[in-house]
Amino acid sequence: MNKLRTDIIPVKQHHYRVDQDAAWDYKSICIWSAIGFFLGDSTFYTQSKVCLPGRDYEFDKTGRLLKSEPWFRWNYQPRNISFNQVVDEFAAVMDELTAKHLSNQNVLLPLSGGLDSRTLAVALRNHGHVYSFSYEYKKPIVPEAKYAEGVARAVGFQFDRYVIPDAYLWDKIELMANINQCYCEFTHARPLAILDQVASRGDVFALGHWGDVLFDSYPNTEKFDDSQQVDFIRKKILKKGGIELGKALWNHWGLTGDFEQYLNAEIYRWLKEIEIDYPPSRIRAFKSLHWAYRWTAVNLQLFSHYKPSFLPYFSEEMCKFICGIPEEYLSARKIQMEYIRKVAPAIGKVTWQTYAPYNLFNYHRYHTLPDFPRRVKNKMIAVTREFLMGPPVSMNWQLQLEGKDNVENLKSFLYRDKNFLNFVSTSLVDDFYKKFTAVDSRQHAHAVSMLLTLSALFQYHETGA
């Protein structure tokens, strides 16, 4: 008998087979195409399932599932505790985690202009062996790397900037398809362009992913009923143009019922598994069970392909800590902000990208009346710059899919595999390719990216149905 315990937010997916004839799970693929990842335990195939987070599994010698039961359930049990105590406890958790996982290691720290990587910079301020870096577009709207460098200088880390080149995907698409097995959209992953240069500089990546979900709240959702929670989650996870692609595949495969109704029913099916009465905490748990596990973690395997990864916000300690914090303390990133201000004021004084040119001590001035002239001036500069230099790159897909060379590569890749074209139909690919290239690229970028990912599944993996 084989046993498996999955983490609260697993980084790696474990699969098992069920007693069912091999077949494509068409309905789940429609959801995958609309949101960019699978929900729950679903995969491309009806006979293959993914082990759910926070559960104990038992399998027989053939791999058949014998038993599964949760060892952890997301919950909301707020303690009677002051805000200052919460911040001190958060600092202690971060210190314990970094000491446990990063002692005597040369750390690779990707920095941004936001809060999550900044909290890691604070936790690593005395580490002594940190190589930090940031990456940006050639013509960025926001100078993210500039703010990241400010954080690095404030704490004394070595720092390098990297510029993400155009069209890097086409030489690396097979690598990424093999890393994430096409279980979620991967064609826009910027680190793919630079990790082979960075990885040799250290032993382990320190990544701040999911801090923005755990340490924030959802205003005005406190009284949402089940239907309103489903609608809220649906709006959060759906990608632009996703419903259109999901419906098109649903109709092509002749599935019964209505795609949108099925999507809503699946969201509700997994939402009702979460035994939390307070809607904001329940929504956070849903995102951690599904979005974090089936999308964020899947693509984070890119980092692990090069070097091990340390993910404090995925840890058991952090997840359990969150369950006992009053929601009012989690809103508006207050805990992380106060941690940075209290423990490392110099890092708190570095410009906060979201509220540039302000920092964590004076960001409240943003959008005030005295700040209005600055916003007008910046808008005029941006308009002038766009007129003289063309529109800046603001989305990852623009590097991979826009421009003559990218479009030619996209077309070649989409139409290369006959089995893929038979699966989704050439006419459906034609329709979305033409809409992307001739109608509205922004509206249809997600759709062609998902078709590109599905095409990669056929080209680089033995399909199981």
Task: Describe the structure in your own words.
- The protein is an alpha/beta fold.
- The protein has 3 domains: 2-70, no CATH class; 83-217 and 286-364, 3-Layer(aba) Sandwich (Rossmann fold); 374-460.
- Helix content is 50%, strand content 9%.
- The chain has 21 helices and 10 strands.
- The strands form 3 sheets. A 5-stranded parallel sheet has the order 8-7-6-9-10.
- Helix 8 crosses helix 10 (259-271) and helix 20 runs antiparallel to helix 21 (441-460).
- The longest helix has 28 residues, at 279-306.
Task: Summarize the topology.
Elements (H helix, E strand, L loop, with lengths): L1 E4 L9 E3 L8 H10 L12 E3 L4 E5 L5 E6 L12 H20 L4 E4 L5 H8 L6 E7 L7 H12 L2 E6 L9 H8 L14 H4 L5 E3 L4 H4 L11 H12 L4 H11 L6 H13 L7 H28 L2 E2 L5 H8 L3 H4 L3 H10 L1 H4 L23 H18 L6 H6 L2 H11 L3 H7 L1 H14 L1 H20 L5
Parallel strand pairs: 6-7, 6-9, 7-8, 9-10
Antiparallel strand pairs: 1-4, 2-3, 4-5
Brief account:
The protein is an alpha/beta fold and 465 residues long. Helices cover 50% and strands 9% of the residues.
**Largest sheet geometry:** 5 strands, parallel
Give, in spatial order, the strands making up the sheet with the most strands: 8-7-6-9-10
In the CATH scheme, the class of the largest domain would be Alpha Beta
Structural class: alpha/beta
**Overall tally of domains:** 3
CATH architecture of the largest domain: 3-Layer(aba) Sandwich
* Overall geometry: globular
Average residue-wise pLDDT: 92
State the fourth-level CATH superfamily of the largest domain.
HUPs
In the CATH hierarchy, the third-tier topology of the largest domain is known as Rossmann fold
- For the terminal residues, how far apart are their CA atoms? 28 Å
Radius of gyration: 23 Å
